[in-house]
Write a structure and sequence with these properties.
heterodimer; A: 708 residues; alpha/beta; Rossmann fold; six-stranded mixed sheet; two-stranded antiparallel ribbon; 33 helices; 6% strand; disordered N terminus; B: 80 residues; alpha+beta; SH3 type barrels; six-stranded antiparallel sheet; 15% helix; globular
Chain lengths: 708, 80
């Protein structure tokens, strides 16, 4: 049970909503600074499970949810990307701006706002709240993280803020679900106070505001206060979006005029707003004790230290790679063993024939070979979730910023690139936090070279094949894996450097980032995120990979030979013929026609390389229960008796998979984010071309150097 | 005010405190920093420098920000 403190004064006399009121449905926009706890609050209000994290820029889209008051009244809540101001610099801030002004298609204009602020840093957080209040719509100001403020000896006079800003103030601790009932009660009130905040603007600015304001009143019928706030917001935008051409023209001519008359007018507006807030905070905020050096600052003295900081970074990465091998090994062998047993059981339980063949050589082998990598996938996402919620990511960005700046990228590009190690799709979407279009595009173009989780099973299989029969320690294997990740990353940065010197030339934009306080990662959230990704992986195995395994089984077993000539069945099958057709193109990379089939299928999904190889070799010689998949691959010989999966071939395959663009969903998201087919096509060609060349160089170079 | 010695934010030593005097230009960076509360008159402390040319960490109004040296060179500061 959540304990139920006495209701604040302004709420205690709320009567239960009458019948008429409960039919009203409000739409709330949830706004606030980055990392102030918006999404945590949104999840609690709506029961949804949107991703939360401890770094700026977790939410990059608007998310709509439904919230019910204590009396069952339905309300719509729109969660929006965090921002310091309503003036938009980057695409994610643009979303906030457009939704707030009701100019985004497919999104209802919010009737009311919930503005969430970090109570431990009130003045800065109130800046956005003030801009919202200026828009003149009923606003609930949520003072979140009251516990932290208390600990820092900050006392806040909420009545005063309520009176001066004309907003309804609620205090919460969103992560502990405290204050939610009061918030929902306030949200369901039929009438809330409408804020009236006037800041003292320089004369030329207030004149310009007046002109836009009267246009808005006469053309759109807005009320006085709302029109004033919107007018000021439109004037301070670089390229205000409006569906009214007359308005756009008015605004841009006034902007020109202002620039001539008062060149630093935008700074003056910001200062005027802070002046007002400064006065308010002087009256409403009492800081009792001196601020001591926080725990976060002590941590940073080590984690951002010139030596220890790097040491920690390498230690964190090293632990990640090592645990993927060491901790995942046993469950992985367990899954593999179970599928082998299932295969031999099915074989003995069913009469020989197409059905048995389909189940054993198609379904069980295909799906099982991919599913055995589930433990590693879970491990990877556990680590990523842990890092995301701890607050370490912005620190890593700080440490590596020098590299980013050398290759011409913003510090903010780091986080999208980092999330691309999980999957390029959220990574590419996260580039919306980058303000400069060229830097954003460069980041999008290189993001798929960060090895995503779909490549992990392939690297692991190749490393296992390499190491099979040799007594390689997990440390060496982890080293090879780290090398694969490093190679992709290194080439990605090199490419960014080239892109920023050539087709995406331009100045480097600012990179201001806030370092959030460290938080103890929530075990529940981390496990939840990990299981989400595990579920996705299982779903993929149960749908896409299952379907493809069946198709491949058909292509492998048709046209059917008579049972006597089973040896040549694969060679003469449809897929075998395709493989032979491809062989000349891939032979220089060290691959045979069977691997060609695997590579061809991997363009539908990377994991299909694994299921395809498993099906091919399983059909040829049923593995014994004791050998592992990697062991089977290692034993393969070509007709002249030479090993097929030589170490060099394995490395060449890994290199191909590091670089090749084989993900249709990524191409689709790049199309969506760049609004043209040009860039995804460019990516498909340059990445896959580079993959081919790199694998060629590795194989041929290796041969020349004598590693056959 | 006149006898203040102006310097650039990027030139502050680690641990040194100074007040913002002005911004070199009304760029987007400058506006964003002002929106985040770094206004003329705000006290800033240099917390650390990642390297001689790398990003810096500053503290102002109780928040910690990282920015690049080029951006820090847009801000004039002076010691009290």
């Amino acid at each position: 049970m959540i304990d139920n403190p006495p209701l604040p004064k302004h709420l205690s006399n709320v009567s239960p909503p009458s019948h008429k009121e409960s039919e009203q449905s409000f739409t709330y926009a949830l706004v606030g600074n980055p990392n102030s706890g918006k999404t945590t609050l949104f999840n609690h209000l709506t029961g949804l499970k949107q991703k939360v994290g401890n770094y700026p820029g977790v939410t990059i889209e608007k998310k709509i949810g439904t919230c019910f008051s204590q009396h069952g009244q339905k309300m719509t809540v729109i969660d929006l990307p965090g921002a310091y101001s309503l003036s938009a610099h980057s695409p994610d801030e643009k979303i906030l701006n457009e939704v707030a002004l009701g100019q985004m298609e497919g999104s209802p204009r919010p009737d009311r706002f919930i503005c969430i602020v970090d109570a431990s840093n009130l003045e800065r957080n109130l800046y956005l709240a003030a801009q919202i209040a200026e828009l003149g719509r009923p606003t609930i100001l949520v003072l979140n993280m009251m516990d932290i403020a208390d600990k820092q000896g900050i006392h806040i006079d909420t009545d005063r803020i309520q009176k001066e800003l004309g907003v309804t103030v609620i205090t919460t601790q969103a992560h502990k679900k405290k204050g939610l009932i009061e918030l929902k009660l306030a949200m369901s009130k039929a009438s809330l106070t409408t804020p009236s905040l006037n800041i003292d603007l320089p004369k030329p600015v207030s004149e310009a505001v007046l002109k836009v304001q009267s246009h808005l009143i006469s053309q759109k019928g807005e009320n006085l206060n709302a029109a004033r706030g919107e007018a000021l917001l439109l004037l301070t935008e670089d390229s205000p979006s409006s569906h009214d051409p007359a308005l756009s023209q008015l605004v841009s001519s006034l902007q020109e005029k202002l620039k001539r008359e008062l060149c630093n007018w935008k700074s003056l507006v910001i200062a005027a707003r802070y002046n007002k807030l400064g006065e308010l905070c002087k009256k409403a905020v009492l800081q009792k004790s001196e601020v001591k050096k926080s725990l976060t600052e002590h941590f940073d003295d080590v984690l951002l230290h010139k030596t220890y900081g790097w040491l920690t970074l390498f230690l964190v990465m090293g632990t990640l790679f090592w645990s993927i091998f060491f901790l995942s090994e046993y469950p992985m062998h367990g899954i593999e063993w179970a599928f082998n047993k299932l295969g031999s059981f099915t074989e003995s339980a069913l009469p020989a024939g197409p059905l048995q063949d389909l189940l054993v050589n198609g379904v069980i082998t295909g799906v099982g070979s991919v599913l055995m990598f589930l433990p590693q996938i879970l491990m990877l996402f556990f680590f990523i979730g842990f890092l995301e919620s701890s607050g370490y990511l912005p620190r890593a960005a700080f440490m590596l910023d020098k590299v980013m700046s050398k290759v011409g990228l913003q510090g903010k590009s780091f986080i999208p690139l980092l999330s691309s190690y999980a999957c390029a799709i959220p990574g590419i979407m996260a580039t919306r936090t980058i303000s400069s279009p060229k830097e954003r595009l460069a980041t999008i173009l290189i993001a798929p070279w960060m090895s995503c989780s779909a490549r992990l099973p392939i690297y692991l299989l190749m490393i296992a094949t390499l190491a099979s029969g040799r007594n390689a320690s997990p440390i060496i294997k982890a080293g090879i894996l780290m090398g694969a990740y490093a190679l992709g990353t290194f080439v990605a940065f090199g490419t960014a450097w080239i892109l920023r010197k050539t087709i995406l030339k331009g100045p480097v934009q600012h990179s201001v980032m806030e370092l959030p306080a460290y938080r103890l990662p929530s075990f529940k959230n981390t496990i939840f995120e990990m299981l989400q990704h595990g579920k996705l992986f299982l779903k993929r195995a149960g749908t896409l990979i299952l379907a493809f395994s069946i198709v491949l089984w058909f292509l492998m077993s048709h046209p059917a030979q008579d049972p006597e000539a089973i040896d040549s069945q694969l060679e003469t099958s449809y897929i075998g013929q395709i493989g032979h057709l491809m062989e000349p193109a891939i032979k220089p990379l060290g691959y045979d026609w069977k691997m060609g089939i695997g590579i061809l299928s991997s363009f539908a999904a990377r994991e299909l390389f694994i299921s395809t190889m498993a099906q091919i070799y399983h059909a040829e010689d049923n593995f014994e229960d004791e050998t592992t998949f990697a062991g089977t691959l290692q034993k393969q010989r070509n007709p002249s008796g030479q090993a097929v999966f030589t170490p060099l071939t394995c490395i060449s395959l890994m290199v191909f998979f590091i670089f090749a663009m084989q993900c249709m969903s990524t191409l689709a998201i790049v199309k969506k984010e760049t609004n043209s087919w040009r860039w995804p096509l460019f990516q498909l060609v340059y990445m896959t071309g580079f993959a081919y060349l790199a694998a060629l160089i590795v194989y041929q170079g290796g041969k020349l150097l004598g590693f056959a | 005010m006149n006898n203040l010695l102006l310097k650039l934010l990027s030139d502050l030593q680690i641990g040194e405190k100074a007040r913002i005097q002005s911004f070199h230009e009304e760029s987007r960076t400058a506006l964003r920093l002002q929106e985040m509360g770094l206004l003329p008159g705000t006290e800033i402390e240099m917390i650390r420098k990642a390297s001689t040319t790398g990003p810096i960490e500053i503290k102002a109004r109780g928040i910690r920000l990282t920015l690049r040296l080029e951006d820090a060179a847009l801000i004039n500061v002076a010691n009290d």
